[in-house]
């Protein structure tokens, strides 16, 4: 979330307070701190450098801790949208111990949650967490294999999808395919992220949501995804 309010204004939404925080957790005496209160960073205070009577240089740097400036300070009883997303990912990892949390899942759940939580309907906002979790589980049921490293080179893993991308590229632009092959630019360098995260990192959030409207509405959605990835190379 570093500088997202400047670079990606839509993503600053996740730092703002949810209108429907989880009352059972926020402000409750649960014996542990919310993650927001644990987000801290260390800074060095500048000190004057001097020499003692023996000519030895003395520089005493003292560390201090303060709340991370990158996170919006919320009032007691409030809950940031990113905390809601964190809770859903934690619950997903607990319900799927064989897979757990894999880096990149946050990029999948983010656009889904934003769609519900930023809706103009108060009812959609109120049930955004539950609806998002259900939709995320349904989508992960289709792309789960992409997040399992042991399946990368199998017929159902992400390796197979990257092979399909390169086969399509070779069919549409053989010269480009040969050029990439000669320069040893493997699809793992670009196609891996495109396919695994459903292009969620390649475009601004509103464009990702528009793209997903078409992607998720298509029965052959992964063929559509490969077509879009190929078009990005052409």
UniProtKB/TrEMBL annotation:
PROSITE patterns: TBC_RABGAP (PS50086)
Keywords: GTPase activation
Cited Gene3D superfamilies: putative rabgap domain of human tbc1 domain family member 14 like domains, Ypt/Rab-GAP domain of gyp1p, domain 3
Alphabetical GO biological process terms: intracellular protein transport
GO MF annotation list: GTPase activator activity
Domain Rab-GAP TBC: 1-219
PANTHER family: TBC1 DOMAIN FAMILY MEMBER 13 (PTHR22957:SF27), TBC1 DOMAIN FAMILY MEMBER GTPASE-ACTIVATING PROTEIN (PTHR22957)
Protein name: Rab-GAP TBC domain-containing protein
Organism: Ridgeia piscesae (Tubeworm)
